[in-house]
Amino acid sequence: MELDLVHDIQAVYRQTLDAMSRPGLIKNIRSQALKAEMAAGCYGSTLVLALMLFDTEVTFKVCSQAEAEITKLISQLTYARAAELASADYILVLQDAAAEDLETAFNKSYPGDLLNPHKGATILIEAEAVSNGRNLRLTGPGIQEEQYIDVKASPCWIDLRAEKNREYPLGVDVMFTDGESNILCLPRTTQIRKQVVG
């Protein structure tokens, strides 16, 4: 792996922080993702985010047809521990996961508790594509007025996220990666409204 675990990861951290603090802002980490690409069964951008986010204190769950192999790889690279959905800090729903895996990931993910709402899980979803198309309207903290996005993925994630986050401050944060190494972050505080076409 040619990825520089100091400079490249710091660059990705800055990009991710920017994307998380300004929901709807799409950042591209292609230069780092290309360095991390291997026969991992996931996008290079997903693997780079795992390298940035995971350490010995973190637990994670992989939803994929190649769950065992990818879990082993990520554990070896990050020393993070595999866990069940209900107790995982991070849940990776990869591009080959079934639609029901996405639903189960949201339903079983930990939303935090009233004393520690910040301990809610983060769900990282591999989408076919993310863009600033006008299908979804975003409002909330970090957005000056409104922002627009389009996510080419199983559309059920929108309602599943809304249901999981209905009892603020409890809820989950969602991150997307796509095949072009774009990243999109949606904190639990971001409100999403589907746009009516026509």
Q: Could you name the CATH class?
A: Alpha Beta
CATH topology: Rossmann fold
Spatial strand sequence of the major β-sheet: 1-9-8-5-4-2-3
Q: Look at the structure and give the mean pLDDT.
A: 95
Structural category is alpha/beta
Q: Tell me what the CATH architecture is.
A: 3-Layer(aba) Sandwich
**Could you give the distance between the termini?**
48 Å
* Major beta sheet summary: 7 strands, mixed
DSSP strand tally: 10
**Proportion of β residues?**
15-25%
CA radius of gyration: 16 Å
Q: Quick one: overall form?
A: globular
Q: Any idea what the CATH superfamily is called?
A: Bacterial phosphonate metabolism protein PhnH
- Helix-strand string: HEHHEHEEHEEEHEEE
Residues in helix, %: 25-40%
Number of helices: 6
Overall number of structural domains: 1
Extract low-pLDDT stretches. none
